[in-house]
Amino acid sequence: MTSPKRLIVNLFEMNTPGHITHGLWRQEGNQREHYKSIGYWLELARVAEAAGFDSIFIADVIGAYDVYRDSLEPAVTEGLQIPNNDPLLVIPAMAAVTKHIGFGVTFSTSYEPPFAFARRMSTLDHLTEGRVGWNIVTSYLPNAARNFGLEDQIPHATRYEIADEYMDVVYKLWEGSWDDDAVVVDRERGVFSDATKVRPIDHVGTHFKVAGPHLSEPSPQRTPLLFQASASTSGIAFASKHAEVLFTADRPYGALARNMQVIQDAAVERGRSTDDLKFVVMATVIVGRTDEEVAEKLERYRSFISEEGKFIHQSVPFRPLDHPGDITVREALEREGRQDLIEAGGLPLAFTVAQYCQAVDEAWDQKQFFSAGTPEKVADDIERWLDEDGIDGINLRQYHSFETALDFGELVTPVLRARGRMRDAYVDGETLRERIFGHPRLPETHPAAQYRGGANL
Question: Helices marked H in 51-101 — which ranges?
């Protein structure tokens, strides 16, 4: 008898008061404003591990949202991903008070050099004993580019070209620069590392020139577990080559299976296996002991949702709320004198403003992966996502910190464990990659493996 597919559960986080449930930081008892306190992150880690989650997945941006209303003011006023602190720095603290839970952290390949980042990630992999993953992004905010001395965004295709070479550099450092047995700690001979087993990488490419060697000795995973979100043609090509855990979406609605298949097919063409990939989606779970309790939570959460938050976050370039809902987007743009946006063709001009507003309502109008109900009902939904939609896991959207995680751990986890969808316990000493894939290092089918033992440098 085949065992049921096990759910990957990541708690979706960000080092900021307002992540993706805009306005809900205002709720009584919500801890979001304490994001800057080490105590917030310690408690979060304990709660998530007690709930049996696989990892805490920390998003990040290195710019501010300033497209909506052509201003930073809306984002700053609402605390929407600004203020925003470094996500890497909270991981060692969380690791110190936990033994098992992993940490997926977002870092961009576009603006900071690979040599320094490779050392930071190796350090985190050492300090967490192999519990860290990297969410690879190329950064999409115009403000981010200006923060690093550029006039505008690096063109999309160029960002992925840079990212591909960036990966080549860090693979050489992580996989090829040191042999596994290079560190000998021979006190009698006074030899800490065997210099014949440590080598420079001497990378010379289009965007980077890195001599090496890597400054860190091999960490438990060497290369951290690799996360990536992908939708564009360039992103899919990149993901099929590099990613292990894909953060994907059902966009447009009904296209999820096709989106996953395209990436799997591309990976197989590169010599990888479909078993090398897992797919996770953003999911909402609002659970209560009774239907009445669920209804109360839904009403409470909805009462705090920001009207403008979704437009700020999606960088909507006009002001939908300033217009009647029954006129078209084209008419709204004409009223604002935005002929440039009409000619650019990136907006659904035939939609009514009301239809457009609903289409970008990311927090509530999910057609899939939204479950509100009692534990059994939620577990039924999650099993359907796994078995019928074909996903492997979820990034759990938080509507209240720490209520969302506490509710899941107390009410949903026991039901999923009883059904074989979550493990009863963690495995001591397991790395994050082992938890997800069953092996601690990248497989031989991954392009990073070509540099092992110093080959192909």
Answer: 73-78, 91-96
